[in-house]
Amino acid sequence: MMEDYVLSVVVGTFNRLDRIRECIESIHHNTSIPIKIYVTDAGSTDGTIEYLKGIESDTISVIFHQKKLGQAKAYNEIFEIISTPYVCWLSDDNNIINSGLEKAVRILDANPSIGMVGLKVKDVQGPFEIEPYVGGMSEIGILNVNQGVLRTELLQSLGGFGEDFMDYGIDPDLTARILYAGNDIVYTKDVAILHWRDWGESDVLDAQMEKQRRYKALYREKYFHKNLQQYPSRFWIRVLGGLKRVLNKLSRMFGCTKTDYWSRDCYNVILGRYISLFDPIKSVGKEYHLLQHCDRETVEYFANRLHGKD
Question: For FRET with 16, which of 76, 258, 289, 301 sits at 20 to 30 Å CA-CA?
């Protein structure tokens, strides 16, 4: 019964049989708490449908579509029907490691003020493979959660992913809405996901980049205002980014991966508008860090703005 499950894991896939198989296997191998997995398929033709039909069970439900609906709409259909305390969204190119889902649930259980736990993601191929973990800082200083675990009631109250963003930008938009609704957001200290990022052919990549440009424009329109311009200045972003790259190169030269993490963490602490400079001290002994907290005045401002009262 659904009441027996603690966490619902929602995964979207399309024509990536090997990836979705590895994703599901990694979830089972690295998670011991009761979970329910939902897979939404966008009309695969490479054997994925046959595989998914073969593994359907009480713990794995599959929703088959004849065509691509867009990630936001496909995921939202599932978000509306789940009733577990917590929910997580993943992509089929994600592999769970280090019991990441269990850690996130423990964090949420112990901290009512935390609305979402970002699962730290490590790219294993592509241009960001050199980074200890990924997660971009938005132009207004919000550290984005690429994949996360959050309270189901919270996600449903916010209406799930913003369907105006469709594919690109759904996670930065959701991160901002959770934060501006007055909920704290944290990151796992350990990497929780290995990401097999597919950069595709050059023409596909060009289309992806164009979609990203459109989502960034929509994000600016939704969240920028006169008192919340780019944070910090482009100058400091370049300076800190350059320093981080130098430290990363030095750490690889001397085989010290901890320096990699330290430089990335410091970069996020300094650039994050809503992360305390004392975060490295406050998070000692905890399974999470990089806590983002929004003050009451900003929460009230966006409650009015996002409801058309600004």
Answer: 76
Q: Rounded to whole angstroms, what are the CA distances from 168 to 173, 233, 271, 296?
A: 10, 25, 23, 29
Rounded CA separation 189/112 (Å) = 19
- 232 contact partners, CB below 8 Å, separation of at least 6: 141, 271
* Number of folded domains that form the chain: 1
Whether residue 276 lies inside any domain: the answer is no
Q: What's the pLDDT at 307?
A: 66
pLDDT in tens, 199-241: 655 555 566 667 778 888 888 888 886 555 555 555 555 655 5
pTM of full prediction above 0.90: no
| pLDDT score recorded for residue 127 | 81
Name 188's bridge partners: 288
Dihedral of CA atoms 103, 109, 114, 116 in degrees, nearest 10, equals: 50
92 token code pair: 């089929």
Instruction: Specify whether the CB–CB gap between 178 and 143 falls below 8 A.
Output: no
Compute the distance between CA of residue 103 and CA of residue 93 in angstroms, rounded to an integer.
21
Total Cβ atoms within 10 A of residue 153: 13
Answer yes or no: is 307 within a domain: no
